[in-house]
């Protein structure tokens, strides 16, 4: 039977951006949600700002939690389910860390016992507040928290992969304690797959939590190398979905394309609709896709200063809540492609990261071979070198042919 793919959007409030939590306006939120629901979407991803919700390690503001629940209830009234990211963390080039983790109180957010205990309490509290809401999907630990753990962050909290795994396991357990039976996960930006010294690893993404999240941004060197209409660019999201499967222990582990957007100037505004449609069409050809959540709902207001230029225009809707061409393109795809039953991807590209994960990054052997196979119509997936001869593993995934990057590029 075909399965229903979830289509949603990362909710960026049209008034005040995420600072709206300081001046929470239910009427404005409802109007935003009306404009999202009108696109035919079925869920939103919501971002409490961690310092606003937990300004002291032992103070989680009850009023802030009530406002989060009110937002979730307003979403339910419009047929929208809600995923909540807890530790914000990093958003649109800004870091939002509580004062009790920095400067005079500088402590590692991944390893300090008191900080981690505070994080557990915070995530458990948010999850418990929403646990009885039928439209609550579950918690994401935070948005791209791996960016705090290594360069290019200017002041990283250095940890080992083992420490990252223990931190993720502990915080996922806190989410499950607060809201048993919901889907709880964590989310890394693509350094987890591409950066050799990143302590958050592909194994963490593909094996911890109830499903795998991938975040696809073509400003990472993909569009620069391949152009706005290049195969690698229009299939980057699909590539990350299929790359994640190399490390998954469950051959049918669901994968959530949790963030993807059309960043200018690499994707000029007049081409955003075409990029949106191509990206979503291509990722819908990936088996075991849980859903697609576009970044983002509404533009950032020009009244707000110091954002990178590309951030201001990423919304599907303007600040006046009017749909842009990309929104109309996404709405068409949603209406036409709600059911999802792609054929298995029978050709697997071998992934060997002995020399480092950068072989999977733009310009790397795995990345470029995947793009070439895709351009040739092969519909590739990936398999770890250690599993390339595992007949049971290959059969469980429907793989009938295994090729190496060298064989592709000869």
From TrEMBL:
InterPro entries: GH. SUPFAM superfamilies: (Trans)glycosidases. It comes from the Bacteria. Keywords: Hydrolase. The keyword Hydrolase applies. GO terms for molecular function: hydrolase activity. This is Glycosyl hydrolase. It comes from Streptomyces nodosus. The lineage of its organism: Bacteria, Bacillati, Actinomycetota, Actinomycetes, Kitasatosporales.
């Amino acid at each position: 039977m075909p399965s229903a793919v979830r289509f949603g959007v990362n909710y960026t409030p049209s008034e005040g951006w995420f600072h709206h939590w300081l001046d929470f306006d239910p009427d404005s939120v409802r109007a935003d949600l009306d404009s999202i629901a009108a696109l035919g979407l079925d869920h939103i991803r919501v971002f409490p700002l961690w310092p606003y919700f937990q300004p002291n390690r032992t103070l989680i503001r009850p009023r802030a939690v009530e406002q989060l629940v009110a937002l979730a209830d307003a979403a339910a009234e419009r047929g929208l389910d809600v995923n909540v990211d807890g530790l914000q963390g990093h958003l649109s080039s800004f870091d939002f860390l509580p004062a009790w983790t920095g400067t005079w109180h500088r402590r590692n957010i991944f390893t300090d016992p008191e900080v981690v205990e505070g994080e557990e309490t915070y995530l458990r509290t948010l999850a418990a507040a929403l646990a009885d809401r039928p439209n609550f999907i579950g918690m994401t630990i935070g948005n791209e928290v791996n960016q705090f753990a290594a360069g290019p962050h200017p002041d990283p909290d250095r940890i080992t992969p083992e420490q990252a795994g223990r931190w993720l396991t502990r915080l996922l357990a806190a989410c499950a304690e607060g809201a048993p039976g919901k889907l709880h996960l964590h989310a890394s930006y693509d350094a987890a797959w591409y950066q050799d010294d990143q302590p958050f690893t592909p194994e963490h993404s593909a094996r911890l939590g109830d499903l795998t999240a991938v975040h696809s941004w073509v400003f990472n060197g993909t569009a620069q190398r391949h152009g706005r209409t290049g195969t690698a660019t229009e299939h980057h999201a699909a590539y990350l979905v299929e790359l994640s499967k190399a490390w998954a222990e469950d051959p049918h582990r669901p994968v959530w394309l949790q963030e993807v957007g059309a960043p200018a100037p690499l994707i000029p505004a007049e081409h955003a609709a075409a990029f949106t449609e191509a990206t979503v069409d291509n990722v819908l050809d990936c088996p075991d896709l849980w859903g697609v959540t576009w970044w983002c709902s509404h533009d950032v207001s020009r009244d707000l200063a110091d954002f990178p230029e590309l951030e201001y225009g990423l919304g599907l809707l303007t600040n006046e809540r009017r749909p842009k061409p990309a929104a109309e393109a996404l709405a068409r795809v949603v209406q036409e492609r709600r059911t999802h039953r792609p054929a298995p991807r029978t050709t697997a590209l071998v992934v060997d990261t002995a020399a480092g994960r950068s072989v999977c990054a733009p310009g790397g052997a795995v990345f470029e071979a995947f793009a070439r196979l895709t351009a040739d119509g092969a519909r590739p997936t990936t398999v770890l070198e250690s599993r390339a001869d595992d007949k049971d593993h290959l059969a469980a995934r429907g793989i009938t042919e295994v090729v190496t990057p060298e064989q592709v590029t000869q």
